[in-house]
Design goal:
Layout: H1 3-8, H2 10-20, H3 24-33, H4 37-50, H5 54-68, H6 72-93, H7 98-113, H8 117-126, H9 130-139, H10 143-175, H11 179-192, H12 197-209, E1 215-220, E2 226-229, E3 233-237, E4 244-245, E5 256-261, E6 264-269, E7 276-278, E8 281-282, E9 286-289, E10 292-297, E11 301-308, E12 311-316, E13 325-328, E14 334-336, E15 345-349, E16 352-356, E17 363-365, E18 368-369, E19 375-376, E20 382-385, E21 388-392
């Protein structure tokens, strides 16, 4: 607006008077009506400085930005103030969501327009966008900060690649049954990312499912349970934590124990209420199990045993658990499950069960064909072998 037009504009004169009186709201309105953008911007900046709260301040600064129009000098002034206020507000509230990150980017763009490149870079680094921060520093000629941001970007990209590789390797290891390797990859993923919540959940889930105590339950649908063990001691009883859990009446919570020693498998009673018998005679002390035979837990539970080549097989022949079987051997010894009605085989290594196809030609492992490899079983695995649907527990 020319000087003469301003002097004869009632709105302009009213704006000047209001500004002189300190009434910035009226002055801002009148400058705007007079088409005096510089005055309108100046008054909206003054409104922001006097604002009683953050929202009022941001509202006034957005008004200043709007009235700056296409004027580069006014844009720079308004953008610098709005960008700084928006960054400080977002930083104070915390940056937790993608919406917060969008606010930071908006603040950084405004700060670049306002030529506050240092603060723009600081804001972008706070959300991990080191490359954009480097660009902001570069525009401001801040070479040392630019190089530092680029170094951080390289480190961030390296960590992202490490995380992606670890996650992919975890998925592959889980699919092919290498669960210890899968756990190692999850630990690597946790170490490679700042947001590790999902990986920690997967790690907790895998730790819960891992079998490392030298025992696995093979639950065939519609058929008796098979238990495979490589523990030094096998406890038989009613307690769910026993190696062979029995439901027969008269069986104590921990009724009897079979200990594997250099001399062989030794059976002893655990001071049960109804006692243990071998070949019909009460058991006193420890008795070696050799060849084939039968022992009883109380009056109702009869168990046949068979020892061959260092592998012990127990079969329940009475009561509610009729048909249930347990097979036990040394860690590292192949356990052929064929004698107890399953064509698969197992080897325990450091207490971990490794399953092989055995005599089965067609085995599905978690919906994928199982080749000539061993897979490390965990709770929740599903198999189909020779028509048997199997859950691992």
């Amino acid at each position: 607006m020319s000087f003469l037009r301003r002097m004869f504009s009632a709105d302009y004169r009213a704006a000047v008077s209001a500004e002189a009186a300190g009434n910035v709201d009226v002055a801002a309105e009148r400058y705007a009506l007079a088409g005096e953008h510089a005055g309108a911007v100046r008054m909206h900046l003054a409104r922001a400085a006097r604002a009683g709260n953050r929202n009022a301040e941001l509202g006034a600064l957005r008004d200043a930005m709007r009235w700056a129009g296409e004027d580069p000098a006014l844009q720079k002034q308004a953008a610098a103030a709005l960008g700084k206020a928006l960054w400080e507000a977002t930083k104070a509230e915390g940056i937790a969501t993608e919406r917060d990150r969008a606010k930071v980017r908006e603040a950084a763009d405004l700060l670049v327009t306002g030529e506050n490149h240092s603060l723009a870079g600081e804001a972008l680094e706070a959300i991990g966008d080191h490359l954009a921060a480097a660009n902001a520093y570069s525009m401001g000629g801040l070479v040392e900060k630019m190089e530092s941001a680029l170094a951080k970007d390289d480190a961030s990209n390296s960590a992202a690649r490490e995380e992606a590789d670890a996650h992919a390797d975890y998925q592959t290891a889980m699919r092919v049954g290498r669960r210890d390797e899968a756990r190692t990859e999850l630990v690597r993923a946790v170490a490679s990312t700042k947001v590790a919540g999902e990986y920690r959940r997967l790690l907790d889930q895998l730790d819960t499912a891992l079998l490392s105590g030298g025992k696995v339950e093979i639950k065939r649908r519609g058929k008796p349970l098979i238990v495979a063990c490589a523990a030094e001691k096998l406890v038989l009883g009613r307690d769910p934590l026993c190696d062979l859990t029995l439901r027969a009446g008269g069986v104590s919570r921990q009724h009897a124990e079979i200990e594997r020693t250099p001399e062989g498998f030794l059976l002893r009673d655990l001071d049960s209420r109804n006692g243990t018998t071998v070949s019909g005679l009460p058991l006193a002390g420890r008795v070696p199990l050799a060849g084939t035979g039968t022992f009883g837990l109380g009056d109702e539970c009869k168990i046949d045993f068979e020892l061959d080549g260092g592998v012990l097989i127990l079969r329940c022949t009475s009561s509610l658990d009729r048909g249930m079987a347990l097979i036990a051997g040394d860690d590292g010894k192949r356990l052929d499950l064929t004698p107890i009605g399953c064509g698969l085989d197992l080897i325990f290594q450091r207490g971990r069960p490794l399953l092989g196809r055995g005599s089965c030609t067609d085995v599905m492992f978690n919906d994928e064909p199982l080749g000539d490899v061993r897979v490390q079983l965990i709770r929740g695995d599903r198999l189909i072998a020779a028509g048997d649907e199997i859950d691992i527990g």
